């Protein structure tokens, strides 16, 4: 049964999907779509995803976009019952709560920082402060739990790890947040080193370098 991920190597949500696939030992064909040169706006891709974003998963003709819906779909389909996306109603609701928080608040506040710069506008330092405030709320919550949603690694940890790693690569320093730092080390130890290096660190640094070249070059 053909399974294909349309992605870009520097796209944080694409990498969230690629990480989760590795953690559940699921593989798919990967098709790179350059959002830089406008491949995502060509009719071939628009016929798959009229919302023209990556990542987009195509499972035997069924197209799904939005990284957080893709990762929960992948676990439910290929690793049902896996602790990354628990089936217990309240545990799952807590994981979903963090996924929505990342999408609607945390990553959204990072996007408010880098989005305008990618569109050729000046960097707004105050946007970084909003992100840091959100990171502090995460830090506070991580005082009492090992992972964001409780005692076990979940897809929410993956999504939020990528968000905070990209922020750090863009120069938003959250290293004073000790609970976040401890949690990141814990998540890193749950990955195999090459997945951590390529899909978290290298990809964040690649996007961070691109951001800095646009934000701070005169
Ligand atoms: N909320 C979406 C965000 C997807 C997104 O913004 N992807 C970017 C690349 S990181 C993209 O495809 N941009 C081109 C576009 O939306 O037209 C997700 O989590 O999948």
UniProtKB/TrEMBL annotation:
Domain GST N-terminal: 1-82
Gene3D superfamilies: 1.20.1050.10, Glutaredoxin
One Gene Ontology MF term: glutathione transferase activity
Residue ranges crossing the lipid bilayer per the database entry: none
Organism: Tetranychus urticae
A Pfam family recorded for this sequence: GST_C
Entry's family note: Belongs to the GST superfamily.
Quaternary structure note: Homodimer.
Coiled-coil positions: none
Name of the molecule in the record: Uncharacterized protein
Xref: PROSITE patterns: GST_CTER, GST_NTER
InterPro entries linked to this entry: Glutathione-S-Trfase_C-like, Glutathione-S-Trfase_C_sf, Glutathione_S-Trfase, Glutathione_S-Trfase_N, GST_C, Thioredoxin-like_sf
Domain GST C-terminal residues, every copy: 88-216
GO terms under biological process: glutathione metabolic process
